[in-house]
């Protein structure tokens, strides 16, 4: 992974074999980013998606392998308990051009990933909502 900062935007290239969330976490820690949003595209051959079930309070996960294009990877970064908190959703199409998507749990890059992080001034914190069972951004 390599990255470069251009004012309020950080351009990141995640390389073959690297995992997206791990590499983005390294950038956030190195640059001291506490709030921002992400957009990216690229290629993967190992991705785990999730869909949150309000009934069970857990993410139903599905892992797909094989060549896939990342057609959309979007989300935000904040912090929780003083640590980076990454919330991403991904859409990836397989060899039959069938699109799969959901909450991103894990994504290993097969060719490259071009990610752009727009840094926001300040801090966005998260707090667990006991009724929903998820960590919500706090804007007060």
Report what the structure shows.
This protein is mainly beta. The chain has a single domain, classed as 60s Ribosomal Protein L30, Chain: A (2-Layer Sandwich). It is built from one helix and eight strands, in the order ββαββββββ. Strands 1, 2, 3, 4, 5 and 6 form a six-stranded antiparallel β-sheet that branches. A hairpin with a 5-residue loop joins strand 5 and strand 6. The radius of gyration is 15 Å and the shape is flat.
What's the structural blueprint in terms of helices and strands?
Blueprint: E1 2-6, E2 9-15, H1 20-31, E3 36-53, E4 58-80, E5 83-93, E6 99-119, E7 125-129, E8 134-138
Antiparallel strand pairs: 1-2, 2-6, 3-4, 3-6, 4-5, 5-6, 7-8
Give the SSE order as H and E letters.
EEHEEEEEE
The residue ranges in which pLDDT falls below 50 over 5 or more consecutive positions are none
Helicity range of the residues?
Answer: under 10%
Number of strands: 8
Q: What structural category characterises the helix and strand content?
A: mainly beta
Descriptive key words:
six-stranded antiparallel β-sheet, two-stranded antiparallel ribbon, 60s Ribosomal Protein L30, Chain: A, mainly beta, 140 residues, 9% helix
In short:
By secondary structure, this protein is mostly beta strands. The protein is built from one helix and eight strands.
């Amino acid at each position: 992974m390599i990255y470069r900062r251009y004012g309020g935007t950080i351009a990141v290239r995640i390389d073959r074999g690297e995992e997206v969330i791990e590499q983005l976490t390294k950038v956030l820690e190195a640059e001291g980013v506490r709030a921002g949003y992400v957009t990216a595209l690229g290629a993967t051959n190992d991705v785990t998606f999730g869909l949150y079930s309000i009934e069970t309070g857990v993410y139903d996960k599905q892992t797909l392998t094989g060549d896939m294009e990342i057609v959309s990877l979007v989300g935000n970064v904040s912090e929780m308990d003083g640590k980076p908190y990454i919330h991403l959703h991904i859409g990836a199409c397989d060899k039959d051009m069938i699109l799969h998507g959901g909450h991103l749990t894990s994504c290993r890059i097969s060719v490259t990933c071009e990610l752009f992080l727009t840094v926001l001034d300040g801090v966005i914190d998260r707090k667990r909502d006991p009724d929903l069972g998820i960590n919500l951004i706090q804007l007060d």
